[in-house]
Amino acid sequence: QVDLRESGGGFVQPGGSLTVSCETSGNADGIQLMGWDRQAPGAQREVVARIKRNGEPYYHDSVKGRFTISRDNAKSTMQMNNLKPDDTAVYFCFLQGFGGMTWGQGIQVTVSS
Asked: Residue 27 — pLDDT band, cuts 50, 70, 90?
């Protein structure tokens, strides 16, 4: 079983910034893909960002230009700038590797004035 430790998130006013991070104790060589999903109240979970082993990122159209995902060995960090109320959601770390896919327990991000 893959362990994922999420940190960051919190509350910010519109236009502000937050960071979420995710780290696993597993060997980084076993990780194919890392990223973040989110689920807003009453909505379906959606993919926000992914980063491949070679560093190539993918972003949902709604966050392009505002969110930046990075990876350092077995840790993934997503910098979120110019946050909007629509970004309010529970953010889940995602990892593909070690023979399967794993999601974290989620971390709350709230954007409100």
From this structure: confident
Q: In the structure encoding, which two tokens stand for residue 96, read together?
A: 């593909």
> Residue 78 burial by CB count (10 A; 0-12/13-18/19+): exposed, middle or buried?
buried
Find, among 46, 40, 45, the residue nearest to 58 by Cα.
46
pLDDT digits (tens, 9 = 90+) for 41-78: 999 999 999 999 999 999 999 999 999 999 999 999 99
Closest CA to 56 of 34, 24, 38: 34
Closest CA to 96 of 8, 36, 9, 7: 36
Kindly compute the dihedral angle of the four CA atoms of residues 97, 90, 66, 102, in this order, to the nearest 10 degrees.
0
